[in-house]
Amino acid sequence: MKPGSLPESQEQDMSRTRTRRVSALMGCRVVTANGQVVGVVKDVRLAPTRIVSGLCAELTVIGLVVSKRHTGALLGYDRRQSQGPWMVRVAVRWLHRDSGYLPWDSVEHMDWRRRVVQVAGDNLEPLDSLEAS
């Protein structure tokens, strides 16, 4: 064990309460309890909390945008129907046609070491039904 590091069991217990960077979620595999792959985390949805740090409220994750393939960034085209030039909007939405939204309360377990998000079900909500946050 390296100096300053924790045994694995303590690290797993702390992982439930430690603050993580959003970038730690990006690219994580999303799987069901029986091991079925749902996709990969492409983006997160955040909401302000009541905790204010400095001038801004702290943010918490309320959901994940999950895609079945690695097709690059959504570039915000999933948030508004009239985002950007028509041709670019159509192309980005076509590339991400299998992407969907997964509410954070569907997450059953996070394995930070293996970068796996275990979820309750494999049903993703369509991105078109979401309002911009």
Notes on the protein architecture:
- The model is unreliable at 1-15 (pLDDT under 50).
- The protein has 133 residues and is mostly beta strands.
- It has helices at 8-15, 86-95, and strands at residues 29-32, 37-53, 56-67, 100-103, 107-111, 116-119, 125-126.
- The chain has a single domain (8-123), classed as PRC-barrel domain (SH3 type barrels), CATH 2.30.30.240.
**Straight-line distance between termini:** 43 Å
Q: Major sheet, described briefly?
A: 7 strands, mixed
Number of E-state strands: 7
Order of helices and strands: HEEEHEEEE
Shape: globular
Strand content: 35-45%
| Whole-number count of domains | 1
Helix content: 10-25%
What is the CATH architecture descriptor? Roll
CATH topology: SH3 type barrels
Q: CATH homologous superfamily?
A: PRC-barrel domain
Question: What layout of secondary structure does this protein have?
Answer:
Layout: H1 8-15, E1 29-32, E2 37-53, E3 56-67, H2 86-95, E4 100-103, E5 107-111, E6 116-119, E7 125-126
Give a short summary of the structure.
With 133 residues, this protein is mostly beta strands.
What distinguishing features does this structure have?
SH3 type barrels; 14% helix; disordered N terminus; 133 residues; 7 strands; 2 helices; mainly beta; seven-stranded mixed sheet
